[in-house]
Amino acid sequence: MSNSYTSDILKPFKLKTKQQELLIRVSILCLVYILAFITRLFSVLRYESMIHEFDPYFNYRTTLYLTQHGFYDFWNWFDYESWYPLGRIVGGTLYPGLMVTAALIYRLLHFLRFAVHIREVCVLTAPFFASNTTLVAYFFGKEIWDSGAGLVAAILIAVCPGYISRSVAGSYDNEGVAIFALLFTFYLFVKAVNTGSLAWGLASAFGYFYMVSAWGGYVFIINLIPLYVLVLLITGRYSMRLYVAYNCLYILGMLLAMQIRFVGFQHVQSGEHMAAMGVFFLMQVFYFLDWVKHMLSDTKLFQEFLRITVTCAVAVGGIALGVGMASGYISPWTGRFYSLLDPTYAKDHIPIIASVSEHQPTAWSSFMFDFHILLFLFPAGLYFCFKRLSDATIFIVMYGLTSMYFAGVMVRLILVATPAVCLISAIAVSATVKNLTVLLRSKTKVAQIGSTKGTSSAKASSKASLDQSQPFQKNGAMALLFGAFYLLSRYATHCTWVTSEAYSSPSIVLAARGAHGNRVIFDDYREAYFWLRQNTPLDAKVMSWWDYGYQITAMGNRTVIVDNNTWNNTHIATVGRAMSSYEDEAYEIIRSLDVDYVLVVFGGVTGYSSDDINKFLWMVRIGGGVFPVIKEPDYLVNGEYRVDKGAAPKMLNCLMYKLSYYRFGEMMTEYGKPPGYDRARGVEIGNKDIKLEHLEEAFTTSNWIVRIYKVKPPNNRW
Amino acid sequence: MEAPIRAREALGFILFSLLFSICRSSSLNHLLISNAERRIDLSSHIVKVYLTLKVENAGSTPTSEVFLSFPPTQVDHLATVEALVTKGKRKKTTLVRLDVKPTELPDAPNDAKYFAIYLENPLKSGESTTLEVLYLLTHSQEPFPAEIAQSESQLVYYRDSALILSPYHIKQQTTFIKTPSTKVESFTRVEPSNRAGTEIKYGPYEDHPPYSFSPILIHFENNSPFAVVEELVREVEISHWGNLQVTEQYTLVHAGARHKGVFSRVDFQSRPTLNGASSLRYLLARLPPRVHSVYYRDEIGNISSSHLRTDSRKSELEIEPRYPLFGGWKATFVIGYGLPLQDFLFETSDDRRYLNFTFGCPLLETVVDKLTIKVVLPEGSKDPSAVVPFPVEQHLETKYSYLDVVGRTVVVMEKKNLVPTHNSHFQVYYTFKPIFMLAEPLMLASAFFLFFVACVAYLHIDLSIRK
Questions:
Q1: Of B265, B303, B404, the CB nearest to A704
Q2: Which residues of chain B does A509 touch, with a Cβ-Cβ cutoff of 8 Å?
Q3: Within this chain, do residues B190 and B267 fall inside the same structural domain, yes or no?
Q4: Looking at CA atoms only, how far is residue B300 from chain A in angstroms?
């Protein structure tokens, strides 16, 4: 009685199947949105709300400048604090998308009277955009396959370690918003190709503009889309929709991209952008031919015409390109671009690119680490894509294959491949699960015909009336389904584990386990930077290896000689030369650069291995690349790099060695080991009696990780 | 040691000029001090002076004002002056605090500055009373040498007069000076004077006329860190939802002898007592009990070296700056904490509310050069007024915090040169209607409501042009 009464009341609230589906879909998306955000907050919980690593500190500093001084000052900002004495035109040498985005969010929040600090906005920008990316992935998946694949793609990308590695809270870097922009642009373009609508084409042009403003990786878009168009043209899938979409994207996107000062006229002048232009003209030729074909009824005549036009077009294009290259109007490909096509290029020609660990070729283990089961689902997804070939699936296949290649060339480009891998894997998962459930449900339906309407008995009877012609099919399907869910749950646990263990360390604050299992914090970087900020003259110039440049300017607020922008190789090489020379030679260089303090990072006391002694060979190589007086073999013994008694004499007396190990010989680091035992390299140092003549120790942090030396004024002559 | 002699000569000159310019004010000459004892405590960088004066009225008219005089150089560093009088007979003596106010006298010699002590009962002719005076001096120990290396200990000068500067005739007086250690490099001898252990005794001196002055200079070791907060901004934000949020921004400096040359971590770690003896390693802040969500950070993030100990009566926060502070080194940081509101906010009988909170700096043994207290009242509160036990500068500001529309009234109080004795309570009175508490939740609720209505409307309205 009461049961029927409540059901009467609930009747208006009872949902139709379609509404139920919508409700489930929206709630799953909401949950994924939240999940993508909170899974990136490990670092905030473990440490604090802080900016991570190196580049994000520059972005944070510029964002601070933007919010304090306004957009025009930011655009015209000449930064005296870096690259002393050259300086840096910041407004013209950065991608402003990230900073402008964060500043806008900050303004909006303040307009709504949320008195948040700009740092919190910066810290949470990357997780926020990761959440938005899941939505885009859903719509993209829906566009290329169906809404089920979209949902799976959203879930997969929400927790995929390949993406989390660059978008945890605090990792305030261009990639944080750029992956969102990249996927969004692709989605809008595919939508435009599918619909042929000018509105979507326009939207994709704006998406492209946002991507250009955010990250240098936009070059990937401007090369992948022409390639895709070319493939469509070759496979005979040319259509009016494609023509509208591509022309709209190219023309408007190019014009918009030129508004970014750092990009400027590269779209028409740089070799990396020429493919897009070539395809653009090819499209016009195609359109023209299409029109001629329409006008001419004679196929033989048309064939002839086609041959002549295509030859002419190719010839004209080739000549134009040749003339452009020869006259220097079109710049050749840059080293970075070459190093993508040829993984060994950087190692031989540009040591500064090769010295960065994230530019190394990817190891198999990191693929497994970042993709986990997606690595196996990816080929399966490709299979499904080929099975149902359409304009959209061709696009995702091409995106997947090219980005997988680039991911193999450079570790950091795994990030670009992640959305494609997630989408293609989602297709595999969705299609498999769908097939399996269809199999299961069709059986039930067959069974239901003979049985009563009661749901409980339907199940039992369906089991009883198994189709004899296909034995174990249902059980097999069940088992496969369970297997799929087991794999997916393993994926989820793996992702959470990787996020919390590997990708949530700010690398400014180091944490270790103490002898009693307690957590020990090494906050030496900030100790040193804050000391610089408070206790040195405002115009002091600090020389350090370029890795720490951004951090010194952002946290220490002091002028640096070189920083992570690495735009001037000679300047960096000069610093490398100073570090690898004897003290009196180095003093000359230091004086000529007007340096007041020299900062080195040293891990011998704590066993922190990414210190300057371990990076030293790169300083030698980069310095030697410009100044041939510095020769790498001088620092090696039989091709071996060592710091103990058997080290090369030049090694034992160069500035870097002296500054790192000054008075370290008196220090007991480990019980049962001689004084001066370097824990990072596990040897007793070779030169314990270090005297400094032109520099003096100004500050050493509590765990010796950062050591700062003051440059003495020159001696009086008399 | 040329410089101290020169300083002594200079001070001798002051003495003579003072003696020559004696001009007796007629209103003063009927009082005299029959016995005076002064104890100067130099053990920390805040100089504490205890003065016991036996005042006698030798004139014919009763008087209720007793004047203290200070040389102008000391007045600038004078943080606080307190006066107490002993009351009652021998067995049941109680100390009563008296009003002390800075005043001007018409014919003060050499810009001497005065403080008037107002007695409770006028001192009749022939009567006498005993006054206990305590005053604190900041920035009165000058490091010499002004720059020291890491391994050297810190030596300072202290300048004063062997005789108490007073507008009255003093019959008998003695001065005791306590130094932090037995290491005293030199001190001016004004016979009879002698030194025993950590104490230097000047006197007793008999029958000195008003404005007698005899400069002395003491050069001694003082390794206590000279913790000076150059600027402290305390912001107290009242939320009627039950929380009092305090944010304190410090600019801390070690005002002792400047650090010179090398800072060696090896020496500092292996021989901490010999190296950097005067460095400032940690500070202790005494916070109110039941403190919660304490943080300690600076511009670039959290500082992990702090410890909080709480019990039912007080909370102690031990903080270490990021690096040990040597002479001349600076550090800025922020301490923030929340407190339960019911401990500090009370209601008066006429339906006004008032906040009762401590004024000074919670750090122990520190001097604050400039303190700004901002009391942020909740949005919608009216008629603020502050009651502070000592003179401060006051004005009002407006602050916008989370979800504020009209902004919050901020009562700003500023005071210069504070010592820990200024940690007395002050009150801020205001009126507030509790209905304003609901403004912000209602605003949020209505915003969400409108959002959902908009969603529902969007889903039900067909906006397409085509049919």
A1: B265
A2: 301, 304
A3: no
A4: 6
The residue among B300, B456, B459 with the most chain A CBs within 10 A of its CB, best to mutate, is B300
Closest residue on chain A to B261 (Cα):
A698
Does B252 share its domain with B328?
yes
Q: What is the pLDDT along chain B (467 residues), one digit of tens a residue?
A: 444 445 455 444 454 444 444 444 445 667 888 899 999 999 888 999 999 999 888 888 888 888 899 988 888 899 889 898 887 766 677 788 888 888 888 777 778 888 999 988 888 888 888 899 999 999 999 998 889 988 888 999 999 999 998 888 899 999 999 999 889 999 998 888 888 888 999 988 988 888 888 899 999 999 888 999 999 999 999 999 889 999 999 999 999 899 988 888 888 888 877 777 888 888 899 999 899 999 999 988 888 888 898 888 888 999 999 999 998 999 999 999 999 999 999 999 888 999 999 988 899 889 999 999 999 999 888 899 999 988 889 999 999 888 888 889 999 999 999 888 888 899 999 999 888 888 889 999 999 999 999 988 888 887 777 65
The CA R_g of chain A, rounded to the nearest whole Å, is 30
pTM to 2 decimal places: 0.89
Beta bridge partners of B415: B371
**Structural domain of B419:** 227-441
> Which of the listed ranges A31-35, A684-688, B274-278 does the model predict with the highest average pLDDT?
A31-35
Looking at the domain assignment, is residue B243 inside a domain? yes
Q: Cα–Cα distance between B72 and B112 in angstroms, integer?
A: 6
**Whether residue B181 is found in the same domain as residue B238:** no
- Show which of residues 478-517 on chain A sit within 8 Å of chain B, judged by CB atoms: 508-509
**Sole residue written with tokens 């300017």:** A553
Tokens read off for A502: 């590997």
Domain boundaries, chain A: 175-331, 524-711
DSSP state of B279: -
Burial zone of A705 (CB within 10 Å; 0-12 exposed, 13-18 middle, 19+ buried) = buried
Reported as a single tens digit per residue, the pLDDT across A474-501 is 888 899 999 999 999 999 999 999 998 8
**B14 lies in a domain?**
no
Amino acid in the structure at residue A479: A
Residues B321 and B196 reside in one and the same domain: no
A660 touches chain B (CB under 8 A): no
Q: Do B302 and A115 touch (CB under 8 A)?
A: no
Least Cα distance to B363 among B410, B331, B341 occurs for B331
Centre a 10 Å sphere on the Cβ of residue A448 and count the other Cβ atoms it contains.
Answer: 18
Residues B231 and B217 in one domain: no
Closest residue of B to A524, CA-based? Answer: B322
Burial (Cβ within 10 Å: 0-12, 13-18, ≥19) of residue B210: buried
Same domain assignment for residues B286 and B358:
yes
In a domain, B400, yes or no: yes
Distances in whole angstroms, Cα of residue A95 to Cα of each of A98, A301, B364 = 7, 51, 49
B93 shares a domain with B109: yes
The fold for domain A524-711 equals Rossmann fold (3.40.50)
Instruction: Give the C-alpha separation, B321 to B317, whole Å.
Output: 13
Q: What is the CATH number of the domain that holds B330?
A: 2.60.40.1730
The length of chain B, given as a count of residues: 467
Domain count, chain B: 2
Question: What is the pLDDT, as a whole number, of residue A13?
Answer: 66
Q: Are residues B100 and B118 in the same domain?
A: yes
Residues of B with CB under 8 A from a CB of A: 261-266, 270, 298-305, 322-323, 328-332, 400-405
Residue B55 lies in a domain: yes
Sheet holding B425-431, edge to edge: B345-347, B353-358, B425-431, B382-387
Instruction: Kindly list the residues from chain A whose CB atom is less than 8 angstroms away from the CB atom of residue B266.
Output: 663, 666-667
Contacts A704 to B, Cβ<8 Å: 265
Query: Can you read off the two tokens belonging to residue B287?
Result: 């916070």
